[in-house]
Write a structure and sequence with these properties.
Helices cover about 35% and strands about 20% of the residues. With about 290 residues, the protein is an alpha/beta fold. The model is unreliable at about 290-294 (pLDDT under 50). The structure holds iron/sulfur cluster (2 copies). Belongs to the NifD/NifK/NifE/NifN family.
């Protein structure tokens, strides 16, 4: 008789079968469920009518599902896609600002499927509040977008942040973000959750600071970092900032690879992405699964 897997073995297997945490896992599929429309910050590179660019490529908008619709989408995709291993929530806004929806979706799916991996992306502001609940819901993989560890630099990334009923800007915003991101990451890691950190590189603001961020998150025990280029979006506060070149991006990644493992295969998926990373079915979703709304 086969011994039941230990918690450590389950975690290893889930990570091996997660296409974003393991570049060898390209045969496995993930589904993003777009249940999180609201956001509690305004990143300088974001235009809210599109999906959260901390995770996805700007320029596409996902339509929002209720938790029940999300469960139905998951079940009908799972039926057609036996290689589906991961359910993620990645916007289109900030997952933790839509906590009721997030909790409901994970609870509904867990009742139907005890094994599927739960993954979530966040800007980290509310992580200290929810890290423990994420653990209790069975979330095993979390991506935190953290663009700076220096409050002054972090503050330049946001036009404002809203926290506990108040709005903060500049250094005060940066100080709160950095403190909560670090405290939240610590709690996740203490609870055995694997953490990936996305870093959006903005020329003239944090491009020379990225290795500092990578050193810090390594010391916290994060698993991998994903250094991305900011893509200027028309209408955003940073629309006139020239993006870092591919050459500069690769130099930064190379330098940071000396510190800890780097992700090179992120596809900047939509908040409603479905399929393997290289064969996204979200565009065809209408024909692929039964329509959720009449
Ligand atoms: Fe936009 Fe995402 Fe930043 Fe919110 S966290 S402002 S959705 S990029
Ligand atoms: Fe994975 Fe990147 Fe796509 Fe997220 S955006 S599902 S990390 S490939």
């Amino acid at each position: 008789k086969k011994e039941p897997e230990s918690a450590e073995e389950i975690m290893k297997r889930k990570t091996k079968e997660h296409p974003c945490y393991n570049c060898q896992a390209h045969q496995f599929a993930r589904i993003h469920l777009p249940v999180a429309p609201a956001c509690n910050v305004q990143c300088g590179y974001c235009v809210r009518k599109f999906d959260c660019p901390n995770e996805s490529r700007p320029g596409v908008t996902s339509s929002i599902l209720t938790p029940e619709e999300a469960l139905n989408r998951y079940l009908s995709v799972k039926e057609k896609m036996p290689n589906l291993t991961v359910v993620g929530i990645a916007g289109p806004g900030e997952a933790l600002e839509n906590w009721e929806n997030v909790r409901n979706v994970f609870e509904l799916i867990r009742k139907q499927d005890p094994n599927v991996t739960f993954c979530l992306s966040t800007n980290g502001l509310k992580l200290p509040q929810y890290a423990l609940e994420l653990k209790e819901l069975g979330v095993s993989h979390v991506t935190v977008t953290m663009n700076a560890v220096d409050p002054h630099i972090s503050g330049q990334m946001y036009q404002y942040i809203r926290y506990m009923g108040r709005e903060y800007t500049g250094d005060a915003a940066g100080a709160l973000m950095v403190a909560n991101q670090i405290a939240g990451i610590r709690q996740l890691i203490a609870n055995g959750i694997l953490v990936k950190v996305n870093i959006v590189t903005v020329k003239g603001i944090n491009d020379s600071h990225v290795p500092e961020v990578v050193k810090t998150v390594k010391s916290l025990g994060c698993f991998i970092t994903n250094i991305m280029q900011m893509i200027p979006v028309k209408g955003s506060a940073l629309e006139h900032v020239e993006p870092v070149s591919n050459k500069q991006l690769n130099e930064i990644r190379k330098q940071c690879e000396e510190i800890m493992p780097q992700m090179y295969h992120c596809q900047h998926c939509r908040a409603d992405a479905v399929g393997t990373l290289t064969d996204d079915k979200s565009i065809q979703l209408k024909g692929f699964v039964a329509e959720e709304r009449p």
